[in-house]
Amino acid sequence: MLKLPELTRAAAAIRVGALVGMPTETVYGLAADALDAAAVLRIFTAKGRPRFDPLIVHCADAEHAWTVAEPSPRARRLAATCWPGPLTLVLPRRPIVPDAVTSGLDSVAVRVPDHPLALALIRACGRPLAAPSANLFGRISPTCAAHVREQLGDAVAEILDGGPCRVGVESTVLRPDPTPLILRPGGLTRERIAEILDERVDLADRSVRAEHLALPAPGLLASHYAPRTPLRLRRSLEPWPDGAGWLAFTGRDLPRIGTAVEILSADGDLAEAAASVFAALRRLDAANLPLIVAELVPESGLGAAINDRLRRAAGLG
Ligand code: TXA
Ligand code: MG
Hints:
The chain is α/β, with parallel strands linked by helices. About 30% of the residues lie in helices and about 15% in strands.
């Protein structure tokens, strides 16, 4: 186990119910002891997150995860192949999980993060950790420690700096049973999940996702991952508009390089684009422009997760 003084302090903070900024391979999380309802409620307060939006519980390994969730055969198979990794499973909850974590649902979301500091923290404090992305509610997810400090520095006892996140978009949230359904596209592709399960995997549309969460108003969460600057999607073949910030995929058809241009991957590599999309959005947002225009990427593989975030940043849910 890593023996850093910050890790020891962070584990001690978790044990007394405080919040910790925790790196994962996807995005940084705002972590608290998942079995301590009062600590979990502090997460909602710090983020300004509505209580009806349940949290993911982070565990050290699959056996640990099965102490909070009941696995099914599909869940065991995916866990054996994909954990640690960017896959969250929505499974029947066990009674030790407080209502604060699941927003009262009878299911709980669990995953094993693929980051040495996250795993070391879980082991050092000996608790499963509830952690949403460490951003203010509705804003852009953090992919480095500085992003966490900016928005939530005052709310955390410690931020563990694990460098930039390798994957860059959040985990894929999958309800494996009765038939596999992706509730949120993310860092593990639908194609890969279908290959592992050797069956069809559906992607829930927005209304189905809202139904799942028993949201009071389905429209409420439409604007998510949003910069403060208005953002709209680029219509196909539309010339890049002057005066706006541009978020381009390969940048191949840019007329010229202006001052506020972000290219996600010059090589057209979707993994590279996913790793850079949130930081690129933040830089454009910081440039104080009247508008950001973002180009969608191809919808296959990780493109589904990137486009989901861009559509939500544009308020299109
Ligand atoms: O990569 C990630 O998943 C990051 C890192 C920190 O692990 N976490 C993250 O958490 O993105 P958050 O809270 O921003 O997103 C959790 C998602 C939400 O869309 C929530 O509605 C869904 O998981 N979720 C949690 N519990 C659920 C449940 N019981 N049923 C259905 N969806 C659930
Ligand atoms: Mg989030």
